């Protein structure tokens, strides 16, 4: 009668591991306008941004190789997004 317990432990550990890595990275954010939906905010990581819906922000990833432009509020090539100060910045209008 040992294997059911072992199985349970494995399942519990797997669930904990999954919820840790796939942490839904959503939460209240004071910079999200309470009345706005699908409002994008810059993230400390240039490859990511926050998607706001009614005061709650969820972390999102830009498409691979793109950075978030906080002026245009969209993901762009790093050279025009001007997020990473170590990448030459050629902003578009
Ligand atoms: C920024 O986010 C990307 C995409 O999730 C990730 O691959 C990268 O490691 C992150 N960089 C830092 C400095 O956290």
UniProtKB/TrEMBL annotation:
Molecular function via GO: chitin binding
Pfam families documented for this protein: CBM_14 (PF01607)
Organism the protein comes from: Anopheles dirus
Record keyword Signal present: yes
The Chitin-binding type-2 domain, residue ranges: 29-82
GO cellular component: extracellular region
Keywords, ordered alphabetically: Signal
Protein name stated in the entry: Chitin-binding type-2 domain-containing protein
Signal peptide: 1-24
Entries under InterPro entries matching the protein: Chitin-bd_dom (IPR002557), Chitin-bd_dom_sf (IPR036508)
